[in-house]
Amino acid sequence: MCGFCGYINQAGIPKEAIENMANKIKHRGPDDSGYFQNEDVSLGFRRLSIIDLAHGAQPMYGDNQSLALTFNGEIYNYQELQKELINEGQTFQTDCDSEVLIRGYEAWGPKKLLSKLRGMFAFVIYDQTKHQVFGARDHFGIKPLYYYDDGTNFMWGSEIKAFLGNPNFKKELNEDLLAVHLSFEFIPSKETMFKHVYKVMPGQYFVYKDGAVTTDTYYKYNYDHIDNHQTIAEDAQQIEKLVDDSVKAHMIADVPVGSFLSSGVDSSYVFNEAAKLQPIHSYSLGFNDSKFSELAWSTKFAKEIKQENTPITMTGDDYFDFLPTMMYYMDEPLSNPSAPQLFFLSRGARKDVPVTLSGEGADEFFGGYNTYLEAFTFERYQKWVPQFLRSMLGHVAAKFPRFHGRRFLIRGAEPLWRRYYRVNYVFDEVDRAKVLKNPALNRDTAEYSKHIFDEVAGHDEVTQEQYFDINTWLPFDILQKADRMSMANSLEVRTPLVDKVVANFAATMPTKTRITFKDGKPVTKASFRKAAASQVPEVVADKEKLGFPSPIAQWINDPKYHGRIVEAFHSDIAQRFFNVDQLDYILEQHAHGKSSMQKIFTIYTFILWYGVYFPENTNMHYDQKVVLTPNDR
């Protein structure tokens, strides 16, 4: 696992800029560094050694030095691709998965190479013969890749903060996206909160040539091959085989591998499969308050399968003191309240191992979120109540004060692309109008993401919702926080359930094998749970999803932390972007149990993020509260 950066050479950029950029992401690769510069480009690389420790230095070069590669990630099928390439006449100098990318690019070309890869990756190849830069990101966005394009300057990197080391990077807030961030808690598109900075989207590649960048898609998850004849028993049997195979592939390493472990079925299943292959140390996080702690569950499970477990606890002080640092490592203002837990969990695991497994992805691919269940209710409502009547009822209900069923009637009149709760996950349009100081910024966020629903418009609502989550929530929230919080600690996290082979099978499963009903009660992830139940104790396989619980809602009301939030809500940053009286109102409502903790956390973390990345524009210098991890100091 590594970090890389680069830029097209321009007048005025000193040669040492590439090293300055790479040092901004040293935490991604503390073991080694490497650089390449010629008249066209500058490439920088930081290495975290996982496979073939003695070799694999980057940039890595092709024959006659015509290609230069920088690569972040793991190619899990590199050994079989290596054999295939050797049979086609390619010669290998190392046993690194990175060399497969160079040799595959030479032998097959970029598109065929990408079609063969199984793994998590972001890489850039400078092709000196063609005078072009080619970059690609993995199928689901496990590993990050950004580029900056202002029409004159072009640069790229594993993290946005790398650009801060280049004097030609003009750091500007993309204020037009503030409403989108307040709605989703992330930006569900290639855009970012920095002007002219873009994500390479999951399953995409870019080519920079002759002063212009183009992007294209090489992989797109779809539900074009759903088999309605499949049964839960059949799908569970197939999932067993796929998870077994994927965990084996994700265990390949020349260093010790550990595993994150919560009380849930996903991480327990992954951990159990890994333990069949070799002894493996697990790591779990909790709080002193047992109501929010899963430590008793995870410790007991590890003991049952005769594996070690290290419990890690954190306090309110740990949590709130860390938040400015979290904003620095996150690059963008992500307000997922479980991110600090993941940081402390990663920090604890990194004391023993440089690689851990984790259970992300099962809920999105196999139908695990309870929010998918409301789709069944709305589909029945749409079937029995004509559209004109639903529209009338929704219109009338909106005019009345709050009453039981009001929200259902309003939402029942709306199309799914506007109704799905992820579209207004934090603030809806009405709430945003109250808090945003500039009303012109309150754009229609449902319209912003509607095109994603349009891509699966012919499928049932559960499938559409899963597709939306796979293309937004998974890469831009779940996987982004996993990457940033682990790599801040120089820890590689591998996700066997976010895997091309596993996911492609999940796309064939009908809704009835993803979510079913037993004794009148819904069962989410039905086939996945059945597969897990054949391997882990039934009490674990059937356990209700908790997410990553924390006492943050209580901490917000604690005077010790409440005061920090009030100070931020009255800062010059808050006054620039928000109506402060509305922020006070939200805090007051929360104290009486009438407002969402997520609203407070989203505003608070945005203020912290802005103070970290734009300290020159504020009196609140939150960047001074950032505590860099050891490998960045």
TrEMBL record:
PROSITE patterns: GATASE_TYPE_2 (PS51278)
Reactions performed catalytically: L-aspartate + L-glutamine + ATP + H2O = L-asparagine + L-glutamate + AMP + diphosphate + H(+)
Glutamine amidotransferase type-2 domain segment(s): 2-211
Pfam families associated with the record: Asn_synthase (PF00733), GATase_7 (PF13537)
Family matches, as Gene3D superfamilies: Glutamine Phosphoribosylpyrophosphate, subunit 1, domain 1, HUPs
Cross-referenced CDD domains: Asn_synthase_B_C (cd01991), AsnB (cd00712)
Biological or metabolic pathway of the protein: Amino-acid biosynthesis; L-asparagine biosynthesis; L-asparagine from L-aspartate (L-Gln route): step 1/1
Root EC class: ligase
Record EC number: 6.3.5.4
Molecular-function GO terms, alphabetical: asparagine synthase (glutamine-hydrolyzing) activity
Entries under InterPro entries matching the protein: Asn_synth_AEB, Asn_synthase, ASN_synthetase/amidase, AsnB_N, GATase_2_dom, Ntn_hydrolases_N, Rossmann-like_a/b/a_fold
Entry keyword set: Amino-acid biosynthesis, Asparagine biosynthesis, ATP-binding, Glutamine amidotransferase, Ligase, Nucleotide-binding
Family label: Belongs to the asparagine synthetase family.
Name recorded for this polypeptide: asparagine synthase (glutamine-hydrolyzing)
Organism of origin: Fructilactobacillus ixorae
Lineage summary: Bacteria, Bacillati, Bacillota, Bacilli, Lactobacillales
